[in-house]
Design a protein that fits this description.
By secondary structure, this protein is of the alpha/beta class. It folds into 2 domains: about 280 residues, Alpha-Beta Barrel (TIM Barrel), CATH 3.20.20.80; about 140 residues, Sandwich (Jelly Rolls). Helix content is about 30%, strand content about 25%. The strands form 4 sheets. The protein has an 8-stranded parallel β-barrel with strand order 3-4-5-6-7-8-9-10. Strands 13, 14, 15, 16, 17, 18, 19 and 20 form an 8-stranded antiparallel β-sheet that branches. Strand 7, helix 8 and strand 8 form a beta-alpha-beta unit. Helix 1 packs across helix 2, helix 2 runs parallel beside helix 12 and helix 10 packs parallel to helix 13. The radius of gyration is 24 Å and the shape is globular. The two termini are about 35 Å apart.
């Protein structure tokens, strides 16, 4: 797996070849990257404004900055915001971490005038060009994502819509503007191989819209028209298509729209198991096209390492949302809001208005904090996403292919979690989780689950990039006197005997340096419930407040 995500495979135009993405050498490539959310399309929750804040999209942000600080200041603010948010230092860090790609969410108004007719904004393209050049320098593919289309494609704040309606599919002007924009993007970047592909529309059609069959038909017609104009300019780049209901519903994928296409889907708050991917794998198999988990995030590191490693093992690329976010605990990095930021937040919710001077002071500090050198780096999150020490791996996050030695015929477990694996997954003592907790990211159902293993059973876990000898702890509940053996690539690390007790966290031994290893845990005697494999000295409760803002 490590070779498929290596930046060594960032080489030439990408192509969809049956169910795989391959580079110019025909080598399989799995995108593993981050998204530059909030850079060219601002969202309120990315500014630590909180859920449900009325200032939740670019056009409202623009009004906010102008009202707080005046028009002259606002013009300069947005230039500094965009210059500071993504710099060469950010791109270099992403490459150094081990990612191989970035996704750039774009608001159409960064590239086109919001006026009658077709007029492009050169300064917007220059921002993208600069970022693409940096990515080429550091060997990162770039996926261009139309996050906010003319008129809005979702019917929600994330598309910068005027009135929470998907007017892209309702208004002729918006439709024609969008086709013209994609024609221009294709014309400009048709010769840039470092551009991995074009993501035609982000999360089209909101969950709440009625008559979904109507909207799916409109989306399918748009895809046909959009692909036609793109292919008139560019016949080489991969085209990435998303489903309805904010890219959670694959109903639109009744056919192959283009021979060089990838089906993208987004996951938030989902169970880290094969069943989560099932409906998308069905599409991939039926249409014989690759899959890309084009947007995912939120949760805790243990969820990331479970869900994302499984995706890669299934041959599905992953893109983490977002790279940078204000005050966020569980992201790759976070810019910190300045002291007094709550004054701005209070104003957005109807509180007193700060003076022009005070508002400018706060926003100046905010923009300065966006620079990568001033951000807080979240190494524990990065290591979880890439499944490398220091990392906590839940016992149930074993490699997706079941062991030949585990023959439980569909043993059953809560909420149909990995029921076809041949392993026993049970609730931890004291947990009685209700169905409504399914989407709760603070304490979700999967938190309550553990892997039960009896004598003769084993589970395997992929571990990436062990740079130096790494201690391995097993956090488990020993049900009866047990003997447990741990191997690294079939070489025994240690065997331990543990008396039955309420809980155990023995130091098993040390994992040797390697680029990629298979860690096997076998129960030779007795019975245990394996909660977590802890690679390195990682605290049991990494973030006691879950994924909340700091």
């Amino acid at each position: 797996m490590i070779e498929k995500i290596s930046r060594n495979r960032v080489n030439g135009f990408l192509k969809a070849e049956e169910r795989r993405i391959v580079n110019s050498k025909g080598e399989e490539f799995l995108p593993l990257g981050v998204a530059f959310g909030n850079w060219l399309l601002c969202e309120g929750n990315m500014w630590a404004f909180g859920e449900g804040n009325p200032y939740d999209r670019p056009r409202r942000f623009e009004t906010l900055i102008r009202d707080l600080c005046g028009s002259a200041y606002a013009t300069g603010f947005w230039k500094r915001f965009r210059d500071n948010f993504i710099t060469e230092a950010d791109v270099e860090a992403i490459a150094d971490i081990g990612f191989n790609s970035v996704r750039i969410p774009i608001n159409w108004r960064v590239l086109m005038e919001d006026e009658p007719g077709i007029a492009f904004i050169e300064e917007g393209f220059q921002l993208i060009d600069r970022c693409i050049d940096w990515c080429e320098k550091y060997h990162l593919y770039v996926f261009l994502d139309l996050h906010g289309a003319p008129g809005g494609q979702t019917g929600a704040h994330i598309d910068d819509s005027i009135d929470n309606k998907p007017r892209l599919f309702m208004d002729a002007d918006s439709y024609e503007k969008c086709l013209a924009l994609w024609r221009e993007i294709a014309r400009r970047y048709r010769d840039r191989w470092i551009v991995g592909g074009y993501d035609l529309l982000n999360e089209p059609i909101d969950h709440a819209l009625p008559n979904m069959s109507h909207w799916q038909a409109r989306l399918a017609a748009f895809y046909e028209d959009c692909i036609r104009v793109i292919r008139e300019e560019d016949d080489r780049h991969i085209l990435i298509l998303e489903g309805t209901r904010c890219d959670t519903d694959p109903g639109v994928f009744y056919k192959v729209f283009d021979p060089n296409m990838v089906v993208s889907f987004h996951l938030y708050g989902q169970m880290p198991c094969e069943e989560t991917y099932a409906q998308w794998i069905e599409v991939s198999q039926r249409l014989n096209v690759p899959l890309w988990l084009g947007e995912t995030g939120r949760g805790r590191p243990e969820m990331f390492t479970s869900l994302y490693t499984l995706a890669l093992q299934l041959g599905i690329g992953v893109n983490f949302w977002p790279w940078k976010r204000t005050n966020w605990q569980v992201g790759c990095c976070a810019n910190l809001a300045p002291d007094g930021w709550r004054e701005i937040v209070a104003y957005t919710r109807g509180g007193p208005r700060p003076s022009y001077q005070r508002a400018q002071e706060l926003l100046n500090a905010f923009v300065e904090g966006l620079l990568f050198k001033n951000c807080v780096k979240r190494q524990i999150v990065v290591d979880a996403v890439l499944r490398r020490p220091k990392v906590r791996v839940p016992g149930f996050a074993f490699d997706y292919k079941p062991s030949e030695d585990n023959g439980h015929p569909n043993p059953g477990n809560p909420y149909a979690f990995r029921v076809h694996s041949g392993h026993q997954i049970v609730l931890k003592p004291g947990y009685t989780m209700e169905r409504q907790a399914y989407m709760d990211l603070h304490e979700s159902v999967w938190d309550a689950m553990t892997l039960k293993m009896d004598a003769g059973e084993q589970a395997r876990y992929t571990l990436m990039e062990v740079a130096e000898p790494c201690p391995l702890y097993l956090e488990m509940r020993v049900l009866t006197d047990a003997e447990v053996t741990v191997k690294q690539d079939e070489m025994r690390i240690a065997s331990v005997s543990i008396k039955a007790n309420a809980a155990a966290r023995p130091l098993i031994g040390f994992v040797k340096p390697s680029k990629e290893s298979c860690i096997t845990v076998s129960v030779d005697k007795g019975s245990v419930e394996l909660n977590t494999l802890c690679f390195g000295d990682v605290p049991e409760d990494i973030y006691p407040n879950g994924f909340l803002e700091m």
